[in-house]
Predict the structure.
Amino acid sequence: MALLRLELNSNLFLRDPQETDLGRKIIDQSIRMIDELGLEAFTFKKLSKAIDSTEASIYRYFENKHRLLVYLIAWYWNWLEYRIEFETHNVASPTDRLAIALRLVTEHKSNDATFPSVDESALQRIVTNESDKTYLTKQVDSDNKEGLFRGFKTLCKRIADMVEEINPSYAYSHALVSTVLQAAHQQVFFAEHLPSLTEHKVVKGDVHQQNYEFLLELIQKASKA
Amino acid sequence: MALLRLELNSNLFLRDPQETDLGRKIIDQSIRMIDELGLEAFTFKKLSKAIDSTEASIYRYFENKHRLLVYLIAWYWNWLEYRIEFETHNVASPTDRLAIALRLVTEHKSNDATFPSVDESALQRIVTNESDKTYLTKQVDSDNKEGLFRGFKTLCKRIADMVEEINPSYAYSHALVSTVLQAAHQQVFFAEHLPSLTEHKVVKGDVHQQNYEFLLELIQKASKA
DNA sequence: TCCTAAACAATAGTATTACTATCATTAAAT
DNA sequence: ATTTAATGATAGTAATACTATTGTTTAGGA
């Protein structure tokens, strides 16, 4: 398995964490800790203690913990897009490509040996629990101008293109896809914490699989001519 | 126009803010300030200054600002449910009732004279920008046990019941409705801040109307037999 | 090999936040 | 007139989110 490195927008960090040992430790450990503590209780002080470094050192990589979160989420969407590109390559039928993309988006993630310093499984839980916080802020517009959300936007566009290929007359491909991408993690959260909001059941096997079936049907019916 | 008061779960507050002058000022001013500053920059200290009171006094009404936010959002969903109940009363056709409910959920809110101390228009913006933060926390399960999210859950159930009445064989009425309720504010946020994620355009007239059309079509196609 | 600069550690310090505690004052109910 | 509930005034604390400074290690280039 080839070792790869995702090329991320340099505005996401002050110093590239993929380039140094300390940087990789920051990524690795922050994923663990945000998953465990939640974003609110997570601090650079606790992180620095855990990796036996200092607050000041971490601030050389990321302006603050919000930026670090944005970085992690951006990494996730870029990773997903790379995997979709890989798996849909040479698949001619847009219907098949859409199904593959949706499966990759919704499925439960296990760790990807291509990126050994990232716990994709924990990162998926972070996306479920925290990703909306990346843009639900007063600085969303300036963050967006810096290109911090490009990962999510290009992923949305790529899948919307498949929908448009299937039915060029459907007027809401982007709205539909962004709605579905949101639901891809929201419904899992609901199944786990607010179960009356969804039919998906954690006890009945894989919630991600149930969500895949729900969303595939939804996207197909909605975009049908 | 009759003056009404929504009966909210008493776990939402320490002292009922609807009962006193100070309480109503807290609600009124916090809506203004959270809308303006965003939840992160909003503090009880600033609020107390603005209404010429003290931090300590506000803490007698709400445990903390998270609880205050949950209260405001709960008020909003309860208000919406009341309006849906009112407007769908005596409407026999479930298809019509669904359309009415969706219109009420999606439409741009102007101020409701029935509740003079609440700026519903500002509150709608708060729902758009902050409501997901009510449950995206580590305490979501204990908050849920206290019934803090009942407003949203009963609204979802009420609309899901309409969907089920239209097509009893559709297996995902709750999942569909919770997805649509989320999209009802998410798509507006996207149109305003991340416009590449949606076809809705702020410049082309009323985003809320565009969203209504998108979501009505979505919910109808998705739940069709 | 020595030197230089970059990276990191160690430490200290600040303003703000999110509270809690205490006591005094006012207003409303009995 | 008296009690009591609500509010105001004030103070204080621990934690957070940083910034600044200085010293130490280390790795690469001359």
